Amino acid sequence: MKLLYDIHTHTNYSHGKSTIEQMVQSAREKGLEAIYITEHAMNHHYAKHLNSEKYLEMKCEIERLRQKYDDIKIFFGTEANFISTDGSLDIPDSDIEIYDVILAGFHVMCRMKSFKDFLKLKLMALLVNKLKFGFLSKLSEKYCTQAVMNALDRYDIRMITHPMSNYRFDLRKVAEKCAQKNTILEINNNRRLLNCEYIKSIKDIDVMFAVGSDAHNKNDVAKVDEAVLIALESGVIDRVVNISVN
Ligand SMILES: [Zn+2]
Ligand SMILES: [Zn+2]
Predict the structure, then answer these.
(1) Which of 44, 99, 195, 239 is the most exposed place for a label (fewest CB within 10 A)?
(2) Of all helices (H) and strands (E), which one includes residue 212?
């Protein structure tokens, strides 16, 4: 069994510890065919100092590294945030074309699009998860599901990162839509919230998965052992796009 590529990594452009080049070098040392540099989009607390110019600077750096290293493919992506029930992501429309891929996920440390979205998404999820206001869980799930389903209609999202962390949505509904749209669900190595139970509950749906390191430093590139175990235990390892089972 072999990891082909790492689809989810961060750098020192946000709160990661390593440079883009160090991440690429680590991926080469570990024998990967490719690495995706997927920095947080700008509504994330740790990316609030970033702007369109900075993302372009990252793209230029990746272009430079593509010339320097011909033994690895380097893709430029972003991990955008679901910030509204209307499906908005925190990427300006004019920036979309600079990326090779867009990943999207919910994050606690993230500014929502409007005060209404703050109430429906962030505050509601906080009340349900931290303060155990169970009676709000269905309503919270409804709003989060709206945000994801609408975003899947509006954008070409390659992967939903760490599904079911903090913000829970209707996993079956989202998985069905992902199957239609060719969007992958991540089995995240750090936040293993898409657990065996969840995966087994959607196994009959023809959706694909990827294991993601979510590495924030060079040592963690390609570290997907826990995620692979979950895929094996759930019986979906043959549907993990970045693992070769031969
Ligand atoms: Zn994330
Ligand atoms: Zn991440």
Answers:
(1) 195
(2) strand 209-212
In the chain, the N- to C-terminal Cα span, in Å, equals 6
List, for residues 189-213, the tens digit of each pLDDT value.
Answer: 987 688 899 999 999 999 999 999 9
Instruction: Give the ligand with the smallest distance to the CA of 78.
Output: 2
- Closest ligand by atom to 161 CA: 1
Distance 135 CA to ligand 1 centre (A): 27
Q: What is the distance in A from the centroid of ligand 2 to the CA of 151?
A: 18
Question: What ligand has the least distance to the C-alpha of 9?
Answer: 2
The structural domains of the chain, ordered by start, are: 2-244 (3.20.20.140)
Supply the pTM of this predicted model: 0.96
Q: Which residues contact 91 (CB under 8 A, 6 or more apart)?
A: 41, 78, 80, 99, 102, 155
